[in-house]
Structures are given as structure tokens and as C-alpha cells.
Amino acid sequence: MTIALSNVVAYTSFTSSAQVWAFMMLSDYTEHKNLHWMLSAQIEAFPAHKSFLDRRLRNISRAGLANLDDIALHVRALTGDDVARFAADYAWLCGEQMEEELNFRRTGRYRLNTFNEALEQVYSNKEYMTRYMNGLLMTQLWWANHTAVMDYYRSTFLARMPQGYSHLEIGPGHGLFLYFAASDPKVGSVTGWDISEASISLTKDALQTLGLEKLPELKLQNFFDSPQETFDSVVFSEVLEHMEQPREALEYIRPLLSDRGRLFLNMPINSPAPDHLFNMDTPEDLHAFVENAGFKIVDHAYYPATNQTLEASRRKKLTISCVFIATAR
Predict the structure, then answer these.
(1) Does residue 57 lie within any of the structural domains?
(2) What H or E segment, with its residue span, contains residue 260?
């Protein structure tokens, strides 16, 4: 994979004490060139976020930094020469999230109730959605729970799949999860479904940018239409919280699993966002919800919000990414 190079932040231009502090922080990550590149761009676009990022990275192990640098390699490829725009859109997204968080704290619930509300206020606004998706891509680096989910997906879920497995992702979005499945030497076939032609086009462009020689089959497909195909591996990552009828969604996914099939389900709880509809109070509540929809959970992991402990996130009702590997009962 070839990544165009250009100058990073000009350190000599830093004049304020905050900028000097940022320079000192950046110097800690020069060994991890892709992470260093992305961090430089992010601090330049969002200087107020420096303390958050410093705390986020400070206690990561060398192995953890190497893993984050690998993710940064792929995110850097996707941002290309527009890294400054992606970094600015991440800063914008953080502001949007703060508004949603304040509403959640005041009311105890998400702001939207129906998919039609999300369609009107978010999905039909092309400019808004572009900035939203750009910002979300950057969260794979800067939000510890998102990085941890990606690592779990690669090191635990994909690593345990059998030789020649068939793989489906519903709503592949930025394409990183689908890319890592398609890059798995054990995989037999890879498919991505979405209900939006525009989303499929964006996913295709992303996978090509990441350098896949053989693209997955990308189909315009609504899983509520009861397709008859089955797969050994089904990924449903950060989609359930957008569902107006989440129990029904899980019931439609269950028949998609083959006899040896496993579901990778990732959903954040207590995580207000501009288009989130469905929430659960605790990881255990979500665990029970999934099993009551006809699944047997065989493994799980819970990852707290960045710079928070799991205990504090439970107590304060902060974001926890809940990941389940499940089979059909």
C-alpha cells in the first residue's frame, strides 16, 4: 500500500505553552509513524483535545501502541490527503456528541425515538452524514472502546473462524471490519449488505483504497426481506442501536447463521449520538436481550469509554461498548 507523504505539523511554529506541550507529547510516538502522523493532524485541528488524547495514549503498552499504529496505517490510507478535513470533522463530531450527552443527562433517554426522525434529521442530510462518517472513522483511533472492539474482532472473533468460512457484514460503513475479514487467509467468501446504494459505493471505494485485490460481494440487500442465504460468520457492528425494532432485527438475523455460524454483535450502551434510538442500562441487560432473541452467547467483552474504568462507566451510566459472539439456539 502506498501512502502519499507530505509535511506534518511544523514544530517550530508552536508558540504557546499548549503547543509546546503538544510537541513534547508527539515526540513520544515518533517510533509509531502512522500513529504519529494521525496524532499530529488531530492535535493541529483540535488543540483542546490534547489532554484527552494524552491521557488516552499515556498508559498503552508497547504492544498496544503497535496495534494502534497498524489501525492508524489503514485510517491514514482512507483519509489520504484529506487528513486535515477528517481531523476537523472528528472535532465537529465531538461537539455534536456533547450536545447529545447533555440531553441524555437531562432526560435519561436518547433524543430521537423513530427511524423517520433519524432519516429526516441525519440520514437525508448529505453534508451532515459526510462529516459524521469522517469523524466516526477517526474514533477508531481516539476512542479506546472502538480500538478495543476492533482488536477483539481481529484477535478473537476472526482468529477462531474455521478454514473456508463464509462471511457477511450487515452495514459495513467505513469498510475496516470488512477489509480485515477479506484479508483473512482462512476466509472463503466475503459479502457486505446495505440498504443504501450510496453507502455501498463508499464502502467499495474504501476497500479499493485499502488495496484489496479481490473485492467482497457488495449487495443492495435489506435483511428484513428474509434472504435465504446462510453464512458462517455474520457481523452486526454498531447497527442495533440505530434500530427502532431491535428485537425484530435480531430475529431476522438468526436464520442467516449456518449450522456452524457465529454472530459478532457490537453495540454501545448509554452512548447518545445524533441517530441512536435503542439503549440498555447495563451490559447484562443487553446480554439478556440478545439471548431472549434466540441466541446463545459464547463469549463477550465490555469496553468502557476512553479514560474511564468499567466500574465508573457502570456507576455513571457512561458509554460501554458491549461485544458478543453468539450462535443461534
Answers:
(1) yes
(2) strand 257-269
